[in-house]
Amino acid sequence: MTEDARGSRATEAFFGRRRGKTLRPRQEALVDRLLPRLALDLTAGAPPLATLFDPEVTDFRLEIGFGGGEQLLHESGRHPKTGFIGVEPFVNGMAKLLSALDENPRRNVRLHDDDATELLDWLPPASLTGIDLLYPDPWPKRRHWKRRFVSRSNLGRFARVLRPGGRFRFASDIDSYVNWTLLHCRGHPAFAWEAASAADWRTPYEGWPGTRYEAKALREGRVPAYLTFTRR
Question: E strand or H helix at 45, and its extent?
């Protein structure tokens, strides 16, 4: 456990630094004005997720570590009747998404800018239809492997909040983390791997917009993997 950079609470340290370059004035203003309107209040008990979105929203998905928010923005536009919860502790990534949401508002997006495990423990049981963990920090050094988000304890958290038939999607260009995730998920009784051939995990997800991390990986010759696991 480490002390949160803001001093608000201890975290499980699955993410690194909280800030990068100094935010521009407009970005700072959006963090101060727009983020509080979209952020979930975890200080009280979790209500039914349907109460957090418009009435037509019936399914709920979570993206952990959305980076610049490309996938979250794309998917929330494609699926207006699905409620999306995005988690990103990195302030600059959050500011980038807020800028996009300010220009193209979404009524089906809520946000959390802190530790994802805190949110997972707060969510009601069997409340999500999907969880996305896309290009997470691979923590390549052996001494840092305990900081990889995919772990037995976090898969237990996923299993608690996913509905039966719900999906956990994991994408990465780092082979060691892909293998790590396969071993952990195949060893967990709550999850089944959806793959019949290599093409199943080399083919991007339906409607996949790509991300800047993926583009960099492809430029550098790394081959992404797209894994999907179903909650039994």
Answer: none
